[in-house]
Amino acid sequence: MRIISYNVNGVRAATKKGLIDWLATDPADIVCLQETKATKDDADVKAIEALGYETFWFSAQKKGYSGVAIFTKIVPSAIVYGNQIEQSDFEGRVIRADFGEITLINAYFPSGTSGDERQAYKYQWLNEFNEYLQKLRETRPNIILTGDYNIANHPIDIHDPKGNKNSSGFLPEERDWLSKFYENAWVDTYRYLHPDTVGGYTWWSQRFPSVRLQNKGWRIDYISVTETLKANIKEASIYPEVKHSDHCPIYLELEFS
Predict the structure, then answer these.
(1) Residue 133, phi then psi, degrees to nearest 5
(2) Tens digit of each residue's pLDDT (9 = 90 or more) over 213-251
(3) Which of 57, 116, 150, 243 has its CA 20 to 30 A from that of 10?
(4) How far apart are CA 31 and CA 50, in angstroms?
């Protein structure tokens, strides 16, 4: 099972930059997009489906905002739109696909960069989402969680940890939440295979175009799995050379005997 997670910062904008041409290279069996900023009707779905993907979209009520999608060549046994938490679903933040005993959740975590109100909502969302995951694990223990988590967990995950110690996305409370999340029988697949890699970033600020060239980024995109799937991890990678967005795609391959 080959999986891509990618915050495209607008699927229509990314398409104009070659997203569908890249999908045609067959980068994965399942592609999880965040921040689609579009509905299914807005996108070039026919071109995507022509590549062998079935597409599932969960968009925000507000046009041009947030939204998640799953493109898959593996037929899902079930699709669940949202996590039944009102504001999260209004913003189009979570979509789930089941593949037999495996559950894949694609999530776009809120950002708190626009101010105190959104930072407060980010903490609320994190706690509500954790409760949702805990309950789901009671009946669906084998979970893959892809997405833009909007949190850099450790100093190794950010180019300037000292300079960003007071920045949303690297605040102590956010990092503490993510650390506790992983302590609760979850695996950060990239760090599991690359424990000491420095510079494996997935997002670069667009305010200063040179920062991507200089690789002054943050690792805020993750594919995590429950520990029940730890033994199935075969490969985990980051693709900084793929440039349709201010993020880049991340990759996970799971092997099942």
Answers:
(1) -65, -40
(2) 999 999 999 999 999 999 999 999 999 999 999 999 999
(3) 116
(4) 15
Which of 98, 148, 221, 246 does the annotation list as catalytic? 148
Query: Distance between CA 1 and CA 30 in Å, rounded?
Result: 8
Query: What number is the average pLDDT over the span 159-173?
Result: 97
- The full length of the chain comes to 257
What letter would DSSP give residue 163? T
AA letter at 47: A
Angle at 111 between CA 105 and CA 113, to 5 degrees: 170
Predicted confidence band of residue 209 (pLDDT cuts 50, 70, 90): confident
Return the ∠ at Cα 15 (arms to 10 and 16), rounded to 5°. Answer: 105
Q: Which amino acid is at 10?
A: G
Would you state the structure tokens that stand for residue 138, as one six-digit string?
A: 């009671």
- H/E element holding 183? helix 172-183
Q: Which residues contact 64 (CB under 8 A, 6 or more apart)?
A: 10, 37, 38
Domains of the chain are 2-254 (3.60.10.10)
Report the 3 state secondary structure along 26-44: CCCCEEEEECCCCCHHHCC
Element (H, E) at 133: helix 116-137
Q: Is 157 a catalytic residue?
A: no
Q: Across-strand partners of 2?
A: 253
Name the strand (E) or helix (H) holding 7: strand 2-7
Would you tell me the crossing angle of helices 172-183 and 116-137 to the nearest 10 degrees?
Answer: 10
- Contact at 8 Å (CB) between 42 and 12? yes
